Each structure stands twice: as C-alpha cells, then as structure tokens.
C-alpha cells in the first residue's frame, strides 16, 4: 500500500528535472499537474514556465496537463504553454492519466508524471503504472483541505526518504 504512495523521485522544482535523461530513457510524454507544481496556486503561466515547455516540446516530448481544477483555470494555462490538457481530472482516479496517454499517443513505459501532492497526483500515477517525479510545493500557503493532507504526506515522505537511503 505504502509503495503506491511513494514517488520515484523527489525534487525541489521543475528546473531540477533532467529532461534529457528522461528522453534517453524513452520518455516521450509528460503528464503534469499545474497548481503548486509548475506555478503558485492560481498563477498564470509566466515566461519561465513557457520556456520550460518550449524546451520539452523541442526535444520531442509531448505534454498533457491534468488538473482537478476547472476549465477556466486549466485551459488558458495550457494554451499559454502549448500543451494538451484535461480539467476536472478527478485525480487520483486513473481515467485522466489514461486519457492523457491516449491524447499524447504514449504508453506507461514512455510517460512520466510530475506533481506536488501524494494523495492525488502521485497515488493516481502509481495506480496507473507511470513513473513519477514529485516536486516540493511552490506556495506554502494552501487551502485547509490541502494543509490537512500535507501532515500524513510529510510522514510518507519521511518513510520514503528513509527507504531510499538504505
Ligand atoms: Mg498541485
């Protein structure tokens, strides 16, 4: 059970992801969360994140944003970074992860997931069988229902780090 909650990799920010390495490993599609993973919650796509997506696409890796947020939030962000997208994704349900792979024409082996929350993002990706990168949440100020999930999340991350160190 715990294994399904562990990320494969944990990094500080999207800038720490070695996309070349993932490309060489065969990754051709990236599924990513938006809020607090790529930008602070609710923030528009800035110059920096637009460049990150240009670089990823330039390498021959497709992208699909999946968010539990509304169309009004997800669509403009996705358009700004030129990405496929799914809103109201109901993560951790597997459906949106599978649909994202369909949209990108990739499979479990050639897809990577990026997100900032264990109980929605990472759990859903693990259930789908996709490799995961968990990023440290950008904004420490979060809604109460997310803060409550961060407490068990910290425990799981602590257990995971202890396991990885062994
Ligand atoms: Mg998030």
UniProtKB/TrEMBL annotation:
InterPro entries, per database record: HAD-like_sf, HAD-SF_hydro_IIIA, HAD_sf, PGPP1/Gep4
Domain of life: Bacteria
Record's protein name: YqeG family HAD IIIA-type phosphatase
């Amino acid at each position: 059970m715990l294994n399904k909650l562990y990320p494969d990799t944990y990094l500080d920010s999207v800038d720490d992801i070695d996309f070349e390495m993932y490309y060489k490993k065969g990754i051709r599609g990236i599924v990513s969360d938006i809020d607090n993973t790529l930008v602070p919650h609710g923030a528009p796509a800035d110059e920096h994140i637009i460049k990150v997506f240009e670089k990823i696409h330039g390498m021959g890796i497709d992208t699909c944003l999946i968010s539990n947020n509304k169309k009004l939030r997800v669509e403009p962000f996705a358009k700004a970074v030129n990405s496929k997208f799914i809103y109201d994704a109901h993560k951790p349900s597997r459906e949106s992860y599978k649909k994202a792979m369909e949209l990108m024409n990739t499979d479990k082996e050639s897809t990577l997931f990026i997100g900032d929350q264990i109980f929605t993002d990472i759990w859903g990706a693990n259930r789908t069988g996709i490799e995961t990168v968990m990023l440290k949440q950008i904004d420490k100020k979060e809604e109460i229902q997310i803060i409550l999930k961060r407490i068990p999340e910290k425990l799981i991350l602590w257990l995971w780090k202890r396991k990885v160190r062994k």
